[in-house]
Amino acid sequence: MTGGAGFIGGVACRALSAAGHGVAAYDDFSTGHDWATGDARVFRGDIRDRAAVEKALREFRADAVMHFAAKAVVPESVAEPGLYYDVNVTGSLRVLEAMRAAGVSRIVFSSSAAVYGEPERVPIEEGAARRPINPYGRTKLHFEEALEDHRVAHGTSYACLRYFNACGAAPEWGLGEVRSPETHLLPLVIRAGTGGPPITVTGTDYPTRDGTCVRDYVDVRDLADAHVRALERLESGRGSAYNLGSERGTTVREAIAAVAAVLGREVPSVDGPRRAGDPPALVASCAKARGELGWEPRRTIEDSIRAVLEFVRSRGGMEVR
Questions:
Q1: How many CB atoms are closer than 10 A to CB 194?
Q2: Does residue 181 have a cis peptide bond before it, meaning omega lies within 30 degrees of 0?
Q3: Residue 186: is its pLDDT beyond 70?
Q4: How sure is the predictor about 317, in pLDDT bands with cuts at 50, 70 and 90?
Q5: Of 12, 94, 83, which is closest to residue 47 (Cα–Cα)?
Q6: If we measure between CA atoms, which residue out of 235, 62, 241 comes closest to residue 159?
Q7: Chain CA centroid to CA 315, Å
Q8: CA–CA separation, 205 vs 45, rounded Å?
Q9: Domain range spanning residue 126?
Q10: CA-CA distance, 151 to 154, in Å (whole number)?
């Protein structure tokens, strides 16, 4: 599992172990944490180091890969596109090369709703046009296309899981987001509501019901469940893509109100300009994942907020950062 020391990767490690799979985490720990990997065997390395990835695959005797490792901050991708193409495209291709050399033919790829760009309609189905509007989304799309080419040429079996907005925590496993700087909305709103600086609403003039961006928040535990199901489906040897969301759109102002309701207090906010590369609305249709993987988004945004608060309390009330 590349990126197994990260937020989603760490929860997926636990979910895979609970389902009876042996797990190894390959991570450079640039943003991940030792405590996130649990009982997984740990290999330290960069995904751009093909030889190191191959060595880890052979030592662990891996029969499949879950590929989480990536740069994933949209504004940073706009400012530093070369870095994003180097890690997310070149690095991912090195992973594929290492897999082929080690005789591993199955991969579950952490893709993104960013591949759609500004959709013509929502909810978004997998067959919608893929026209990403930022470098991050383009890097995810490029690797999706590479996976299909490798399926045709080499028989690679893959699943592309297009996340919408991952959120929440897994306090039952002691896992949650701990990053600096924090860029995800819900942790920043929770921080603002628990004594931190006011949350900045980035853009108030979008063509949405209250002028702020609409996003589809999906709990990290639901995402981990989808990964386990996708891995087991790969026995069929086919390649496919699946949207993973809650199928419920929430504006930025509604997300702030949801946190305020759970906390029982107002959350201070200030209005700011739009961020580069942000589409107005992204909401998933998960009918395909429901039909082919038997997967359902089970948790609400309020469930995710409560999980984050429980995780923060479990760490002694430390600030989400």
A1: 16
A2: yes
A3: yes
A4: low
A5: 94
A6: 241
A7: 23
A8: 43
A9: 7-314
A10: 5
Other beta carbons within 10 Å of 82:
8
Is residue 100 in some structural domain?
yes
**What is the identity of the amino acid at 309?**
L
Number of H helices, E strands in the chain: 11, 11
Q: Per residue in 300-312, pLDDT tens? A: 999 999 999 999 8
* Residue 318, pLDDT above cutoff 70: no
**Span 241-267, pLDDT tens digits:** 999 999 999 999 999 999 999 999 999
Query: What is the rounded CA–CA span in Å between residue 151 and residue 145?
Result: 10
**How many domains would you assign to the chain?**
1
85 is catalytic: no
3-state secondary structure of 106: strand
CA distance 68 to 110: 5
Task: Quote the CA–CA distance of 222 and 6 in Å, as a whole number.
Answer: 16
What stretch of H or E contains 14? Answer: helix 7-18
Could you tell me the CATH number of the domain that includes residue 249? Answer: 3.40.50.720
**Tokens 């819900």 found at:** 186
Q: State the catalytic residue, choosing from 26, 84, 136, 158.
A: 136
In a domain, 2, yes or no: no
Residue 173 corresponds to which amino acid?
Answer: W
> Phi and psi at residue 280, in whole multiples of 5°?
-65, -40
d(CA 288, CA 18) in angstroms, rounded, equals: 25
Q: Does residue 158 sit within a domain?
A: yes
The answer to whether residues 6 and 36 touch, using CB atoms and an 8 Å cutoff, is yes
C-alpha to C-alpha distances, 50 to 90, 113, 130, nearest whole angstrom: 10, 27, 29
Q: In this structure, is residue 321 part of a structural domain? A: no
The strands making up 65-67's β-sheet, listed across from edge to edge, are 65-67, 106-112, 157-163, 239-244
What residues pair up with 159 in beta bridges, in sequence order?
Answer: 108, 240
